[in-house]
Design brief:
Elements (H helix, E strand, L loop, with lengths): L7 E7 L3 E7 L5 E8 L11 E2 L1 H19 L6 E8 L5 E4 L8 E2 L7 H9 L2 H9 L8 H11 L1 H5 L1 E5 L1 H10 L4 E2 H4 L5 E2 L4 E2 L1 H6 L12 E2 L4 E4 L2 H7 L6 E3 L2 E2 H8 L7 E6 L3 E7 L11 E4 L6 E7 L4 H10 L4 H9 L9 E3 L14 E3 L7 H26 L5 E5 L6 H11 L3 E4 L4 H13 L6 H6 L5 E4 L6 H33 L3
Parallel strand pairs: 1-5, 5-15, 9-12, 16-22, 22-23
Antiparallel strand pairs: 1-2, 2-3, 4-7, 6-8, 10-11, 13-14, 16-17, 17-19, 18-19, 20-21, 23-24
Helix pairs in contact: 10-15, 12-13, 13-14, 14-17
């Protein structure tokens, strides 16, 4: 078949560090991919913002280059889907213009607000309805911060969105909040499947109720490419655009999750462990985060924190760029879990308390860059184990874990995951899960597949398995225990610092 006679769906993935666009056929085969770095704006420590006009122009350039470089005509694109990082906040004003920069999920300016809510028992009030924890990067936390600190901006809000909702609006001119993402906002009642004004009232942001866009489904056609967007991107006006996906859901789909026997770990900016279930449970061992899954009647359950491979990108940038293969070789050259050097992977947030920050501990003059890299690899894995341990208490039938993300292309790092978890690690060979998942949503939405289950059955990609090394597991377990002891000691440090600061404020 001539390349000009082939048809594709376009999958767009808006992540924490890159915007990607890919062309996929109905078997999930990637025809072409284009990646563009995204700029994170940090005007103050703890802030993580994105220029919305710049984001839109990045999408235009990425899609334009994809079509040009692949020799694809706009009329070959039969549908468009968008996957994106969850949480965060993207606002439009009453003139349908971006209302300042967008907020990323790693933004921590609302830390004090979240601390106050925790002290007020807000989590206990919200959780039975939302099945969400309290997080600084949640839309509700950021909205409350804006209300308290930028009241004039708060009064000008006319639409609340997340990243893929904003980009879909740019392409179609239609507003909506996609369900798999907005269901994890603390504005959505998981029991009723709708917005709940009781929640916004509890959080003292009830004014927002009137500007919440309608909730749209992942595969629902939510608009068409406008003539203006077509002219800018090279797409054809009238091409359908579906609701899209929260990127964690997109990855779970690409990993083939369908039941409670397999968990999915994502290693990107965020550390995420996910499972799929058909029911909401009560009286669980931990307040798990639930969200609406792409398949009707199912939920995604997950544990997450921004404590994953983004730490390695920071290290590589700060300490000198080094090819990924060389980093893996440097770590592989060292004995497993033998160093007394630790790294806490909390550069962008923590799963060990709001006060916890990143750092190396145990550094000696004898250590070289290989030891530092090994500590980063181990720290990221140990942080993942925090989530995995909790998830295994919920998904007791788990037999394997499937890992996705850039680290999944490192046999060294993945063997470390298997050895530490003592579970078989399966590695689906999917390069860009966000793009592929978004394209699958478009295939379903345009009628090529009746649902995601049928789409998953038609995917064609290799699956590699790494078995845990039983001899290495005790060494990793011992070091993970020490990692936890270090965190506990630092909790005491932060507690004493707070106490001291309080006494000084009081003049004691």
């Amino acid at each position: 078949m001539s390349k000009h006679n082939r048809s594709f769906c376009l999958g767009i993935d808006c992540g924490g560090t890159y915007l990607k666009a890919g062309l996929y056929d109905e078997r999930g085969q990637e025809y072409s991919i284009e990646r563009t770095p995204l700029r994170t704006i940090t005007p103050q420590p703890g802030y993580a913002e994105r220029d919305l006009n710049e984001l839109w122009h990045t999408l235009i350039a990425t899609v334009s280059h994809l079509l040009k470089n692949s020799g694809t005509q706009g009329q070959q694109i039969k549908g468009v889907g968008i996957s994106a990082q969850g949480k965060g906040l993207f606002l439009l004003d009453k003139n349908n213009a971006p209302l300042g920069n967008g907020f990323l999920s790693s933004d921590r300016r609302a830390t004090e607000i979240v601390s106050q809510w925790q002290q007020q028992g807000m989590l206990e009030k919200l959780y039975p309805h939302t099945r969400q924890t309290l997080w600084t990067g949640h839309p509700v936390s950021l909205l409350r911060w804006i209300k308290d600190n930028q009241p004039e901006r708060y009064d000008r809000i006319d639409a609340l969105m997340m990243a893929h909702d904003y980009l879909r609006w740019c392409l179609t001119g239609e507003k909506g909040c996609e369900e798999s993402n907005i269901s994890e906002s603390n504005l959505y009642n998981m029991n009723t499947g709708a917005y709940d004004p009781t929640l916004s009232t509890l959080l003292n942001i009830s004014e927002i109720d009137s500007v919440l866009p309608r909730i749209v489904g992942s595969t629902e056609i939510c608009g068409e490419i406008t003539p203006q967007a077509a002219e800018l991107t090279g797409l054809v006006a009238g091409t359908p655009v579906v609701g899209g996906l929260f990127d964690v859901v997109s990855t779970a789909l690409c990993a083939g999750l369908q039941d409670e026997y397999t968990l999915n770990a994502v290693m990107g900016t965020w550390s995420v462990t996910s499972g799929i279930t058909d029911q909401l449970r009560t009286h669980e061992p931990h307040p798990y985060i639930y969200g609406r899954y792409a398949n009707t009647g199912q939920y995604i359950v997950h544990e997450a924190s921004p404590t994953s491979s983004g730490n390695l990108e920071w290290f590589s940038t700060l300490w000198g760029k080094m090819p990924f293969e060389e980093m893996n070789a440097a770590v592989n050259h060292l004995p497993k879990a033998s160093s007394e050097l630790f790294f806490l992977p909390f550069l962008y947030g923590s799963n060990a308390g709001l006060d916890m920050t990143a750092g190396f501990y145990g550094l000696q003059s004898s250590h070289h860059r290989g030891h530092l890299l090994q500590a980063v690899y181990e720290g990221v894995i140990f942080s993942h184990m925090t989530h995995l341990k909790r998830m295994l208490a919920r998904f007791t039938k788990t037999q394997t874990i499937r890992v996705m993300g850039r680290p999944a292309h490192s046999k060294v790092w993945m063997q470390m995951f298997a050895d530490t978890s003592n579970l078989p690690v399966e590695l689906p060979q999917v390069k860009e899960t966000g793009c592929l998942g978004a394209a699958l949503a478009a295939f379903v939405g345009t009628g090529h597949y009746k649902d995601f289950t049928e789409a998953q059955q038609n995917l064609d990609y290799p699956l590699y398995t790494l078995e845990p090394d039983r001899d290495s597991h005790p060494a990793y377990l011992n070091k993970k225990i020490k990692y936890q002891l270090l965190i506990e000691s630092l909790h005491n440090f932060h507690s004493q610092c707070k106490s001291r600061d309080t006494r000084e404020e009081r003049g004691i």
